[in-house]
């Protein structure tokens, strides 16, 4: 009996497989719209997906049938009252659009799928579920925003904002038995929700940040099991987050502020007798600011006085006579949207590796890893004693904290003891970027057991693994994982430690693409594209930071162009055409804006940052002062705009706007002509002043005349290999294309040298100097360290893409996005002797595990069901190749020989390829 395993991707469902169940179909990892928690879907025609896993080869879906019902009972009875698709002849198993009856606000949908393959018919055993959110403003109209629009003693509206947390409670009396109950909550800036003393959900720092004047996210929770007939208590704590901003009354021309924390909540109830009710926020709720959270500020930390704890405040029968009545307050202004991206969670714990006393009597705790999150504290002591924890990334030579690079961020948590046995505390509404913590206030010597590091980032899956024969490359990969995860905070931020933490667009232009191999970042970046869209000015301009918490509208190409390149990543890696269709009008508007305002004689004349962070000529310099190292800004902006025009041509087809293609074609042709006329030095085989970036961009983007491509590349290689002694000389822009272009033009060995270098400037130099994440500066330890974030990801460029596509050989064919067909073409001769990598694609797990030895090459690969792969083998003699111990000449699959390479087209399955 052949085995098949069908994976529906709609909501997460845990199903334990016993030894006796090995022959059964397994349904797990269920999602809708690629969401792990599909409560409150914000679209009426969501996309449904499933995975097929089989232990036999060449499994292809030929058809599917989806049944969707309004109740689980109807679904189990086979009654698709919402949608019965019938048998659809199609191989589509991802992004299948719901096409049933029109769904309504708060509609529950239960569905299952039958998949027909070339081998057998498979029916899902587990039922999947999603619910529609509140889609109209009118349905929120009678729900009032409540809060307290004043400061309390100890608060401060200043450069160093302090504001105590708001505690709210509402006792309700349910006179009937509850059948279904859901809470819809907007808690600005951050919230924790309780029912009858129990925290609802395991999310932290929720909801995700937005520009609250443009859009506000609500979260949805099924709380049926939390409610009982009779009295119940609803309670919330409101923290400040990005709403009551970290620097509330400081540089108002730059920093956007939103006001005091506030909340709107609806509890929808359906009783067993069929009746319904809604409980909303109004002025019958009670509120106090006199709780234990004295201050919570993302830059400065959280202060907590355990003596002020209010035992039972979020349970029934608590005496709240001293509490105030909540005030009706003005709404934030933005439209209400169901949150379609993940909340943050505590994703793992880190135990410290050492604790040492300093001469001044404090203690330095070393976590052994630059991490993002907070510290859990366990302590015993007398009432009123204070434990102070100050966080930093590194130490000074004398062993004390190095804090200059934090700028004016105080990064300090303070806990005041209650004095009742062992007390365990961790903050609620802040996070730190740190490796070291200075601890003071202990009356006895603390031990490592007093502390646990909590690692916090968006609740998304790690999808990629990579190991190779080069230890430096492996450590860089680990450092990248820690840096990327730590900077996922409901949006991609630049750094997690200093007084910045902003979603800079330019940091992710190509970085998001590399990150997509490590993390399932589809919904995060789809949300971020909305943030960028909402930040667009009426005339079409885009900022450098989005959401525009900082008003940086300076106009350039390379930073705002991220809007387009990230959309391209989502299409290429996740087959997300919908996001392209959605964003296309706004992308076009920006492209037109830049053309109309800054294109002069077909040269894009506006650039702002150049090739940011080029390695300077001296280890002591922050920025290079040598003009020979700096690339002309108009060259960068013109080349980049040309590339964006080519992406927009593809997008025009996807968005059914083919009429725009002619304009993009004609404009690109003109820019290419003017670009070469202005910058190409044909007699010297170089562009402009012959920097690596100046030559690299036109070569990568296809702007170089055909007859000069080889010579331009040879000159580029000379600049890297000889002039720069085989080291990086590019900044943020050039590094986005360097590794792939070197490899694609036949010099993967030179790319490998750059990747494995240990001396300045290189990623390995950071590792050799103790980095456990990626630095902001190539020489962050010697150039004024006060200017260096030790946890930035922008200098990764295309390194991670190169790891997967060029070293592991895991690449999505651009003609079949989303890894429907995989191109497996590792550079076996770059310098590695083995690579073992995997990537969890939207179709399933792709594996590439190859090893070279004196006898030849052994390559183990896995291709998910319902996909195929084009596999390139470094051989020309078919007699030297076996597939699963079978001679290639006897292999039933398709293959051909081209340019000393055997190219196999393989269907799904596991293969062992052996080349003598």
TrEMBL record:
Residue ranges occupied by any Alpha-L-rhamnosidase C-terminal domain in the UniProt entry: 809-885
UniProt entry keywords in alphabetical sequence: Hydrolase, Signal
Taxonomy, superkingdom: Bacteria
Record's catalysed reaction(s): Hydrolysis of terminal non-reducing alpha-L-rhamnose residues in alpha-L-rhamnosides
Keyword Cell inner membrane among UniProt keywords: no
Occurrences of domain Alpha-L-rhamnosidase concanavalin-like (ranges): 356-457
Span of domain Alpha-L-rhamnosidase six-hairpin glycosidase: 462-807
Enzyme Commission number, as recorded: 3.2.1.40
Pfam families the record matches: Bac_rhamnosid, Bac_rhamnosid6H, Bac_rhamnosid_C, Bac_rhamnosid_N, Ig_Rha78A_N
Record domain Bacterial alpha-L-rhamnosidase N-terminal: where: 176-347
Secretion signal span: 1-21
Coiled-coil blocks: none
MF annotations from Gene Ontology: hydrolase activity
The keyword Signal belongs to this UniProt entry's keyword annotation: yes
Official protein name in the record: alpha-L-rhamnosidase
């Amino acid at each position: 009996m052949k085995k098949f395993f069908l994976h529906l991707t709609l909501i997460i469902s845990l199903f334990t497989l016993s030894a006796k169940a090995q022959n059964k179909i397994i349904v797990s990892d269920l999602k809708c719209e690629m969401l792990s928690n599909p409560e409150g879907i914000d679209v009426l025609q969501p996309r449904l997906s499933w995975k097929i896993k089989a232990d036999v080869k060449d499994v292809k879906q030929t058809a599917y049938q989806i049944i969707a019902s309004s109740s689980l009972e109807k679904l189990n009875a086979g009654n698709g009252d919402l949608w019965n698709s019938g048998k659809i002849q199609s191989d589509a198993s991802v992004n299948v659009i719901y096409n049933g009856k029109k769904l309504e606000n708060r509609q529950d949908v239960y569905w299952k799928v039958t998949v027909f393959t070339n081998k057998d018919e498979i029916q899902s055993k587990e039922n999947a579920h999603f619910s529609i959110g509140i889609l109209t403003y009118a349905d929120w109209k009678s729900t009032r925003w409540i809060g307290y629009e004043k400061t309390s003693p100890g608060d401060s509206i200043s450069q160093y904002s302090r504001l105590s947390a708001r505690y709210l409670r509402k006792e309700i009396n349910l006179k009937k038995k509850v059948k279904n109950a859901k809470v819809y909550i907007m808690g600005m800036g951050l919230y924790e929700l309780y029912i009858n003393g129990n925290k609802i959900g395991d999310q932290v720092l929720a909801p995700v940040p937005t520009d609250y004047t443009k859009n506000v996210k609500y979260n949805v929770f099924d709380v049926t099991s939390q409610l009982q007939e009779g009295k119940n208590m609803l309670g919330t704590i409101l923290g400040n987050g990005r709403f009551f901003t970290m620097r509330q009354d400081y540089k108002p021309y730059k920093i956007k502020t939103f006001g005091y924390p506030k909340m709107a909540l609806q509890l929808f109830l359906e009783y067993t007798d069929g009746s319904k009710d809604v409980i909303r926020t109004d002025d019958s709720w009670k509120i106090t600011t006199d709780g234990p959270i004295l201050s919570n500020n993302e830059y400065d930390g959280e202060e907590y006085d355990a003596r002020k704890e209010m035992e039972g405040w979020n349970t029934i029968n608590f005496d709240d006579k001293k509490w105030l009545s909540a005030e009706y307050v003005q709404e934030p202004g933005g439209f209400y949207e169901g949150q379609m991206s993940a909340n943050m969670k505590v994703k793992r714990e880190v135990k410290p590796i050492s604790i040492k006393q300093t001469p001044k009597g404090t203690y330095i705790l070393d976590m052994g890893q630059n991490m993002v999150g907070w510290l859990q504290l366990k302590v015993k002591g007398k009432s009123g004693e204070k434990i102070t924890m100050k966080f930093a990334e590194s130490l000074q030579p004398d062993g004390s904290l190095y804090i200059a690079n934090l700028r004016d961020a105080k990064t300090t948590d303070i806990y005041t003891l209650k004095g009742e046995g062992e007390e365990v505390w961790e903050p609620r509404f802040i996070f730190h970027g740190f490796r070291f913590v200075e601890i003071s206030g202990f009356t006895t010597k603390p031990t490592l057991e007093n502390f646990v590091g909590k690692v916090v980032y968006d609740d998304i899956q790690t999808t990629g693994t990579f190991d190779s024969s080069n230890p430096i490359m492996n450590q860089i990969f680990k450092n990248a994982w820690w840096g990327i995860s730590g900077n996922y905070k409901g949006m991609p931020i630049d750094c997690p430690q200093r007084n910045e933490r902003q979603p800079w667009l330019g940091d992710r232009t190509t970085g998001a693409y590399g990150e997509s191999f490590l993390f399932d970042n589809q919904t995060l970046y789809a949300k971020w594209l909305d943030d960028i869209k909402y930040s667009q000015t009426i005339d079409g301009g885009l900022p450098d930071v989005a959401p525009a918490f900082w008003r940086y509208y300076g106009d350039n190409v390379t930073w705002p162009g991220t809007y387009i390149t990230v959309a391209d990543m989502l299409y290429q890696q996740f087959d997300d055409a919908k996001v392209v269709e959605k964003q296309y009008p706004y992308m076009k508007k920006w492209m037109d804006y830049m053309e109309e305002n800054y294109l002069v004689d077909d040269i894009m004349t506006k650039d702002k940052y150049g090739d940011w962070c080029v390695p300077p000529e001296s280890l002591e310099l922050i920025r290079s002062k040598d003009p020979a190292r700096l690339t002309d800004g108009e060259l960068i902006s013109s080349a980049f705009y040309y590339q964006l025009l080519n992406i927009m041509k593809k997008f025009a087809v996807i968005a059914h706007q083919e009429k725009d293609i002619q304009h993009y074609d004609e404009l690109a042709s003109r820019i290419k002509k003017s670009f070469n006329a202005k910058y190409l030095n044909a007699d010297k085989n170089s562009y402009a002043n012959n920097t690596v970036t100046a030559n690299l961009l036109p070569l990568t983007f296809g702007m170089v005349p055909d007859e000069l491509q080889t010579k331009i590349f040879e000159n580029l290689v000379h600049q890297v290999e000889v002039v720069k002694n085989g080291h990086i000389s590019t900044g943020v822009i050039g590094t986005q294309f360097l590794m792939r272009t070197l490899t694609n033009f036949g010099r993967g060995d030179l790319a490998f040298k750059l990747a494995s270098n240990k001396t300045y400037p290189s990623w390995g130099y950071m590792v050799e100097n103790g980095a456990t994440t990626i630095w902001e500066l190539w020489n962050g330890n010697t150039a004024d360290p006060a200017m260096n974030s030790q946890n930035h990801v922008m200098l990764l460029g295309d390194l991670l893409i190169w790891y997967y596509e060029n070293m592991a050989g895991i690449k999505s064919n651009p003609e079949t996005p989303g890894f429907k067909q995989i191109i497996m073409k590792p550079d076996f001769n770059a310098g590695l002797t083995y690579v073992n990598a995997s990537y969890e694609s939207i179709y399933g797990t792709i594996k590439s595990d190859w090893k070279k030895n004196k006898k030849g090459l052994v390559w183990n690969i896995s291709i998910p069901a319902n996909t195929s792969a084009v596999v390139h083998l470094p051989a020309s003699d078919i007699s030297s190749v076996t597939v699963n111990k079978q001679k290639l000449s006897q292999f039933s699959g398709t293959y051909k020989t081209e340019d000393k390479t055997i190219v196999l087209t393989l269907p799904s399955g596991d293969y062992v390829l052996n080349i003598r």
